Amino acid sequence: MAALVASACSSGAGRSGAGSGSVVRVFAAASLAEAFSVIEPRFEAAHPGIDLQVDVGASSTLRAQILEGAPADVFAPADVADMEILLDAGAVDGTPSVLARNRLVLATPAGNSAGVDSIDDLADPSLLVGLCAEQVPCGRLARRTLAAAGVEPSVDTDEPDVRSLATKLAAGELDAGIVYRTDAVASDHIDSLDLADGLPAELVHLIAVLDAAPNPGGAASLVEFALSSDGQQLLRELGFEAR
After folding, report:
1. pTM of this prediction?
2. What integer is the mean pLDDT of 211-219?
3. Do the Cβ atoms of 208 and 96 come closer than 8 Å?
4. Which of 4, 30, 55, 70 is most buried when burial is the number of CB atoms within 10 A of its CB?
């Protein structure tokens, strides 16, 4: 995984050429939903005639759909492992690029009425605690982080993706959980605390043109836009870290 990320840091789009008068379909992790909602109108304005369509969901589910032949042009997962599987299957054109970096945070409903102040509190059975399901990236990373902190969480719900978890936190249905920093930034109804330095809480988002992309030129244009200074500025404004 480290080798793939290192290679991706210096990579650009897999193909060149700006498609026009066509659809570009992106399969993106749920944690990137807000990012692509901002990128979409800017990209379409810069590329008249292109209709950017974004499907968001759990990275593992999207990856499985791609391997089953779903017509997608670009893949942007929340886990390096899902991109590696597509690379091993020959489903990626060229080398993926690092789109952005994200980080887990300890999250509570706004006001933090339960008084949660550290990751250790997630072991308290009197609190309503939520994590993403273990099979999705935010769940795997949260559990690695908790294990590194020596915390055995008292989990009341395993949510199918980070958007679902953030929604329950924002609604006050849970006392605490672990989400990405960008999900906390995006909601006025979630408070967050940074996790201690040294914990494995960082996430690398990759992006790549797919080998079977119906619109490879348009896909490459999207990747180029997302990696440009304008695209990266949009991502920083949403709470993502620099590539």
Report:
1. 0.78
2. 97
3. yes
4. 30
Going by the DSSP 8-state scheme, the letter that residue 18 receives in this structure is -
| Class of the CATH-defined domain 102-194 | alpha beta
CB 117 within 8 A of CB 193: yes
CATH class of 2-101+204-237: alpha beta
pLDDT digits (tens, 9 = 90+) for 140-189: 999 999 999 999 999 999 999 899 999 999 999 999 999 999 999 989 99
User: Is residue 163 within 8 Å of 30, Cβ to Cβ?
Assistant: yes
Same fold? 2-101+204-237, 102-194: yes
The label of the residue with tokens 């790549």 reads 208
CA–centroid distance for 111 within its chain: 26
> Across all residues in the chain, what is the average pLDDT?
91
| Residue entry with tokens 């102040």 | 117
CA dihedral 193, 199, 200, 201 (to 10 degrees): 0
Q: How far apart are CA 53 and CA 64, in angstroms?
A: 19
Task: Report whether 41 contacts 13 (CB < 8 A).
Answer: no
